[in-house]
Design a protein that fits this description.
49% of the residues lie in helices and 13% in strands. It has 213 residues and is α/β, with parallel strands linked by helices. Helix 3 links the parallel strand 1 (67-68) and strand 2 (90-92). The longest helix has 20 residues, at 5-24.
Amino acid sequence: SGPWARSGILERMGAEMAVEDVNRAGGINSLGGAKLRLLEYDAGDSAEKAKSAAQRMVAQEPDLTSGFGAWLSSFTLAVTEVTERAELPWLTLSYSDQIAGRGFKYVFQTSPTSATQARRIVPTVMDLAENATGKRPAKMAIISDNTAASDSFVKAIREHVLGEQGLTVVLEQIYTPPLSDATTLIQPIRSARPDFVIMESTNTSDNKLLLEK
């Protein structure tokens, strides 16, 4: 529930289909055909609520074998503090570099981290722009929210990508989601006249507002 509900719903729907596929095919062969059972806990709209949900989950379901979530990196960081203490194997698709950088033994991150994405995406944008216009971009602007994945992404740009690509950031706008109006973020960027803008937003509603402006 909350601003990131849509992404959580999609993740849940994917899990439901996967569980159905496994069980229809006969369950887990190595466990004598044991069936998977999916339990759902709502991370809500804050890291505190996500952590509370994880605490309830661990307390109410002592026989859990593993888990996954909570999509938003800020929530996943909070949830995995609980699951690590419980020694519960936890899979995440979240991006923040902090998730797997804490030395935890029971957390498994399968997606490319935010830093990896930043160091791959920006050079691709540069090459596309140069191929299309014959001129390599020199100035960029950044719009990002202040969630953990976005923080890692922008940190990698500052520490690595700018120097590697010979770029200058003419304006950086950071906001707390969700947005009600993107005007105050977009107008200064128009005035700064960057060659391109990197938008690092985790909320689909915010993305829509930003793109409309």
